[in-house]
Amino acid sequence: MNKKIAIVAVNGKAGKKIAEEAVNRGFDVTGFGRHTNDTAAQHYVKKDLFDLTKEDLAGFDAVVDAFGAFTPETLPLHTTSLMHLADLVAGTDTRLLVVGGAGSLYVDKDHTTHLSETPDFPDAFKPLATAMGEALDKLRERNDVNWTYISPAADFQADGAKTGKYILGGEELTLNPAGESVISYADYAVAMVDEIEKGTHNKERISVVKA
Question: What residue ranges carry the coiled-coil annotation (predicted)?
Answer without folding.
Answer: none
